[in-house]
Each structure stands twice: as structure tokens, then as C-alpha cells.
Amino acid sequence: MNPNPYQAPQAPGPQGPYASPQAGPPADRTMFVLAAVGAGLASAYWAGLTLLIGLGAAFGSISAFQVILPVVLIVLYAVRGVQIFKGDRAAARRILWLHGFGAISAVLQIASGGTLFVVLQGIKILIHIFGGITAYLVQKNA
């Protein structure tokens, strides 16, 4: 029975592309984009740091083996950033672990360096805080 006799009859239940209860309305793309930017910043930071490490390895003060972990991190942050940009909520959860680990390791490394090292680690912490907050908001609001 139609509750309003002056309206056209309607089929029962929700309609449209998001009619199923599991789909829900599309999430706000802004948080996905910001979380992807945070991942991109972390990847760019590690790319710059890897360049510095590579220069150190070229001059013999650092072994080439120390370049492997930064390259892996560049790839991980870049891949997660692309996945988040495409709307993958699970990638946002996975990058939370990377940002958390990165921020904690930066805090621990601050005590062992000079002024330039502290500034670099401070930038790293800010990038991880930004990326972690936006990835968390993707999880919370999505």
C-alpha cells in the first residue's frame, strides 16, 4: 500500500547502483587522495634518502647492501599509494603499519644523530604522521 495516494507507486526497497546494503554510498574521495599523497611523500622521502645513500656507496663510505631496504620501502609506499588512490581500503590499513613503523624508527634514530640527521628524521616523522592520520581516516570513514 502506498502511504501517499498523490505519489506515483514505487517498488519496495532501495534502488540504484548502491542499493545493496553491503555497497553503501561511495566514500569521500578526499581522504583517499590525501592518504595517497602521504604514501607518495613517504616514497619520495625514501627515494631522496636512497639517492644520498647511493652517493655514499659510490664514494665508499656506505656499502651497497644498505640501499636494498630503502628501495623496498620506496616500492611499498608507491604501490600502496596507487592502491589507496584507486579506493582500496585494505591498502590504507596496510600502510598504517608502514607509517607507524616508520615514525617509531625515526623517533628512535633521532637520538643517534647530529643536527642534519635530526631535521631529516623530523621531516620523516611529519610525513608519517600525515600519512597515518589520513590512512586512519580512510579506514574510519570508509
Structure description:
This protein is an all-alpha fold. The chain starts with 28 loop residues before the first helix and ends with a helix. The chain has 4 helices and no strands. The longest helix is centred in the N-terminal third of the chain and has 30 residues, at 29-58. The chain has one domain (29-141). The relative contact order is 0.15. Mean pLDDT is 79; it is low at 16-26. It has helices spanning 29-58, 68-85, 89-110, 115-141.
List the helices and strands and how they pair.
Blueprint: H1 29-58, H2 68-85, H3 89-110, H4 115-141
Helix pairs in contact: 1-2, 1-3, 1-4, 2-3, 3-4
What does this entry show, briefly?
The chain has 142 residues and is mainly alpha-helical.
Key features?
single chain; 142 residues; mainly alpha; 4 helices
Q: Helix count?
A: 4
Number of discrete domains: 1
Instruction: Name the helicity range.
Output: 55-70%
Which assembly state applies to the chains in this document? single chain
The end-to-end distance, rounded to whole angstroms, is 36 Å
Global structural class: mainly alpha
Round the Cα radius of gyration to an integer and report it: 22 Å
Note the main sheet.
none
Report strand %: under 5%
Order of helices and strands: HHHH
